[in-house]
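User: Assemble these into one structure.

Assistant: Restating your components, then the assembled model:
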Amino acid sequence: MKLNKIILSFVSALVILFSTSVASFAKVVGDKIILGAAISLTGKYSSNGVHTQNGYNMAVDRINSMGGVKVGGKTYKFDIIYYDDESNPKRAAQLAERLISQDGVEFMLGPYSSGLTKAIAPVTEKYGVPMVEANGASRSLFTKGYKYLFAVLAPANLYLDVAIDLAVEKNNGKPVTVAMAFEQDAFSQDVRLGVLDAIKRTGSKKVIDDKLPKELNDMAATLVKVKQMKPDVLVVSGHTKGALTAIRQISEMKVDVPMLAMTHCDAAKLSKQHGKNSQYALCASQWHKTLTYKDNFFKDGMTYDADFTKEFGYAPPYQAAESSAALLVFKDAFERANSFDQKKVRDALAATNMQTFYGNIKFAEGGQNVDKPMVLFQVMCDDGGKCENKVVAPTKWASAKLIHPIPSWSKR
Amino acid sequence: MKNNIILYVGILIFGIAAPFIFPAFKVQLSILCVLIVLATTWNIQGGEMGYNSFGNILFYGLGMYLCASVQVGMFFPLAEWTESGGEKTFVHTPTQFFQGMAVGLIVAAVVPTIVAGLIGYSILGLRGHYFAICTLGLGVAAGEISGGIEIIGAGQGFTTPPFPDVGSLDSRGEFFYFLSFFTLVLTFIAVRSIYSTRFKLILNAIRDNEDKAEAMGIETMKYKIIGWMISAFFCGLAGGIMGGLVGYIDSTDVAFDGREMGVFMVLMAILGGKGTLWGPIIGATVFHIFKEGFWTFFLGWQYVALGVLIVVIVIYFPEGIMGWLREKYPERFGEVVDEKDRKAQVELK
């Protein structure tokens, strides 16, 4: 049969194609330390993926231009191989495998979001590739006994439990009623666990507990319930789209609630996109530019904010800041390890104890950063309609006083 | 026949040697095997039977969740494994892991088959695009529903048991490669032997004219359901393997991934040429290579490139690669063209 010939030649063409496409990279080429990263450039996390990438790039440029990394008396520069994981865990795991086994990367930076980090961590762990990640906050990442995973951020369950405490405090220490709406994804569901803990601790009551679909763009059903039940606090978390959807529909439907607590307000550029409609929203953040941490590369939060805005044309959300910090951690660890041996770098990472513009970084046994508290900021607008995020809690960093309760829409 | 045996032995040897020739590509090769299985089994009802199903992703996702759940549930409390996004850590011993995987894969294949029988009974009465749309809904619904079931991790996802500490670093890749390659061989043998029976002719009869087939005394419903059940069996198996390979199951992004896998399996079969044995295999291979290439060279634009590819396929290869080859070189497919007769017909016009 002639058909077989076609298929045979096809198979041999395949063999040739595969064998020629084996590129040989190595972790350190010449004076370059090559890091690998799978980033969500497309898909539902694309905006935060870009924040992450910008954060990484900014730090790479800065570290390289300020002398690079000194290991064994030689100066090296950082370089990053990026792939697009399309906000898909399956793709992310596949790319991690590809970065390590095909591109020969020996050190990794994290992806965006907890779900994707959960998919990548088993791969990096298996190969013993140290990964410093800046955007996977899910608590379960740090209880798996991973030895090569280091997160510069605080775990997700700490995001919004402070808000419940704050509401109780404003309610003269009496329990409050809480309405919750969380996207069905690893991160948001973890934030939910934190809020549930806080509800239990304060003896409060949850009156609504909705799970919202991914790619969140409608939560009207929840908001109708909120209008009926009149809870003291409404907690919403669903990455950037969740924040945008919440504000859009709350303002459209004129939902009055004394406290609105959210995540991802700065990543969604809420104050810019929705202006006065986003006013009074309370947001959990890993970082804020007014915090007074310092380092040699970015100086402090304000300088980072200015430099980042100059380079990328928008103010850095915390996702960018923490991503930049990941590179500072890597640099520090390489220099302390004074070697490119993965085990030595891993041990150096575990012993990290430093301050960056983003906050103090010190890893617990599980790999999470235990030396940096979360902050809450509130969107505040002046009469001219110019809105700004101001830190209101914890008191140590507060630059403004919390406005509570939120005035009703009829008075705004 | 002799040529055939040489071809099959050649491919078999290539398949067995592949992970050692291209050690860095083990994961991609495993995924390729899974893709071929999906495309080939989609072709049973999509190509041979003419029922375009977007619902096979249901069986794939079901198999994935079932395999992982059984693998965990056999040795540890499943609810504790998935609680709070999987905070508790249990470690499978190698024996537990492989036993669990084996039982899990059996369940992952059998249950979707039964489900396909039940669903098929109720919806295979629909025809044409009504059937397609109905099956499209199946995958979407399954994704949303599974995202709310706490015991399988709900929105937090489900981390499948990590590969135990046996052998070298490459063991995991090799294990999953051979598992998926074995499944591929199994699928191929099954599909090939099915295609050489009367069953295939009945499927084709249903595709070409269902009413006429019925009028000829064929119980079309029975055969439609059996056809779909065969697909479901292998889809479930493929899903179970993929779950272990990825290591993390998310309801809509990994398991019931209708947007990607669900569409890809249709696309691969069409690209290769539906209604042929080799079409889906060639389609899946070409598609996978193109896709990996796009992801490397068109970073951020890969979907645009993929879209262009689809447009090109639809315009220039409406019958798929096999169909195109067949039209171009009919004699290689054992079709004899009587040049005189052909000319006579052309001139008649």
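The first strand of chain B starts at residue 158 and ends at 159.
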